[in-house]
């Protein structure tokens, strides 16, 4: 506990609080722009932090990261434009709430859930970093493959419609994820000689197309789309009943996120998708998920934020970056003359504990910053739709283009928009596709890696305890998910349809 | 910590840029009159990006212009190189690239540019040493034992690398050539995940830059057999060199250099070379590079001629090795 | 598109297939086969050394099978989740304008520069609105262009040139 006291002493210096505030403010302001996700925001703002000394610059960078994440959730809720994979889930119910005039409670839930999860995540980070880091090391390619399979299977619950279509959309997402250079052989796949496609399709373009553009086309089907909000705005704050409903989802989401966040690569994505599935399966009324239930916002937002904290564990205790944002942080460490590694916590206790404590301070500042802003965000929704949708198109195009100056990222928006519009019209949902797209490369990589290491012996998935238990769990879930739909299908076989 | 935020901070936001617009026929004597874009072919935060940002600041000071670092990722750095090859040769778009510049012709048969013909070299920046490292409970204790062990267990030994065209894969090719065996390679998406699995004991050994491995070697999370430079390095003074141990084939460093489009006037190249030379003598640059286990290129290598010679020599070295191994970038 | 809904026949006849499921299933089959066939042209390899084509081939085939299941669903009364939903006609013209606006941005932003491209893009997009006259669209797009330039160029300093090479910028 000495460490955390030292950290608080550092983090609570007025100048560091100010730096942290500056970070979360800038992060929120940039992250809220449609088409600019947290990784892009951090990359964009990274150079500012070089102006400060080591402690201050890392505090600021962490602040930018949280701010950007929160800003991304805001855009997902208000405009149905997820800026990163984990806020795809938030958009499902969050945007429906916004349309029903409940954007205020949705944003407040996101802020409060994130703050709670961030607090717990910080404590977990401070108390259990070494054992959790060891857990992450125990995960070999076979285990990682199993956890991805489990996540994909669990995500069938994301769909409110047909299971078969949800599966098909996951597989389509996995296939889209294979576009680009194969990192095992270097062969470019499905790139048609376009060098810009070697890195694969851009997630943000795909999300903006499938969610944003497809939804705009759908809204233009009928005349009566004067603004995004279809009902009267009813209050900005949570009602007593809302508090009761979000308590358990927040707790469960936090627990799931804290554990899954430690996994390198896709931990935080799995956290938000899985926590949504858990809530839907535990709910008495699972059919309501996807129509704007507050639990569907509370759980993934908490999971996401808890994971954001614990994803620092591999970096701080092993010196190993778990995902792109962490890799950016490693760069920042090095430029400040600090080599991140297993010894950094002993060599630079003030820095590491200061960073950990400031994560909590940053979360606190974010809540204080964002709760008053809710009123302004909600007012923005009243902008006439005829003005709103061209603005979304403009922001999204610039956002996607500016990151890599790659016109193909813009074309991908258009393509995904058209495909998304028709698939959604035909009863297929976009969220499972996006999850498949994000996890596809992880699935393929780890499958191939596991098979290489095991010399082609597939029993490796059954003999490693972690992978065996995860795959068994996935099998159980698929049996539970498929059974009722088989029964239902039998009932409707000979019924006429009356579209 | 108590510094105020200078206005220049806001200018730093300008990381992204297109080819500096216009000014194609500007007077080279007046260069630089505008911001200079330094294109990095790899992700922000990676080792090359870090080296770039270290030298960008003192170079900008020396030139009296702002330098904007732009990350253009893709296809082993060939997307960025292709972009700069096509840029106006006015000195406002500069490329930094590493050993990948010399391996691209072997890896990518349909490369849209020629590394020697389409660029002018500015000078070498640094030559990052590599280390041969293994999981800490791997049986062999030194290179000699490693050679015997690999020979006896060629079927089961796994060699990790950070993906197609990565320095770790190239070094792996040299190791295979030295030992005369074909090892089971396990590719990863970058050094971070590869190193994680090495620390976790999922794979046996790999060869990677000190930038990535020094901290884990010092903490004992992985064991190191040798460094691939002719001389031992400061960060790991006790580590023998591959040459000491008789692995003469495995001598490789991740060398970095600056490039401009071929039609850039010599006067501008001279100015850039001069600024690079000054930057590499900056104490902060020297100290930060030492932390990374490397040193700035010696003054005699910070010239276009030395750089071109190095590039030529490396292309001649790598192209046949890559072709023989059957590795392809697409 | 009203033709999407199946026509209900009298009792005793087999009902016509549910069109949306038929289309969705067909789309999955076509995409699955496309990925599988294209994937099989890469090196497929073996289970030990999976080539570049292994995973696309397997997943493409799986997608085609799932597509067949969706088609089967069309003949068995259709997806209950959307069967009874009233669908509006596809807004071909408005949707086309939106897609065209995005494509225009991609094609022309590097040549024309940010300001003119943005204005045209938002103008085309705005025309897709219900009851938006060309004048109103021009005003809307002028406002949005100005806003975007302030946010991205003045505040964020994204260094996208305002006027591109073709306009001598």
Automatic annotation (TrEMBL), chain A:
Coiled coil: none annotated. Keywords: Membrane, Transmembrane, Transmembrane helix. This is Tripartite tricarboxylate transporter permease. The chain crosses the membrane at residues 15-36, 43-66, 106-132, 144-177, 315-339, 351-371, 383-404, 410-440, 461-483. PANTHER family: TRICARBOXYLIC TRANSPORT PROTEIN (PTHR35342:SF5). Residues 17-435 form the DUF112 domain. InterPro entries: DUF112_TM.
TrEMBL record, chain B:
This is Tripartite tricarboxylate transporter substrate-binding protein. Keywords: Signal. Residues 1-19 form the signal peptide. It comes from Nocardioides pinisoli. The keyword Signal applies. InterPro entries: BUG (IPR005064), Bug_dom1 (IPR042100). Pfam families: TctC (PF03401). Belongs to the UPF0065 (bug) family.
Automatic annotation (TrEMBL), chain C:
Keywords: Membrane, Transmembrane, Transmembrane helix. The keyword Nucleotide-binding does not apply. Residues 24-161 form the DUF1468 domain. It comes from the Bacteria. The keyword rRNA-binding does not apply. The chain crosses the membrane at residues 22-42, 54-75, 96-125, 137-156. InterPro entries: DUF1468. This is Tripartite tricarboxylate transporter TctB family protein. It comes from Nocardioides pinisoli. The lineage of its organism: Bacteria, Bacillati, Actinomycetota, Actinomycetes, Propionibacteriales.
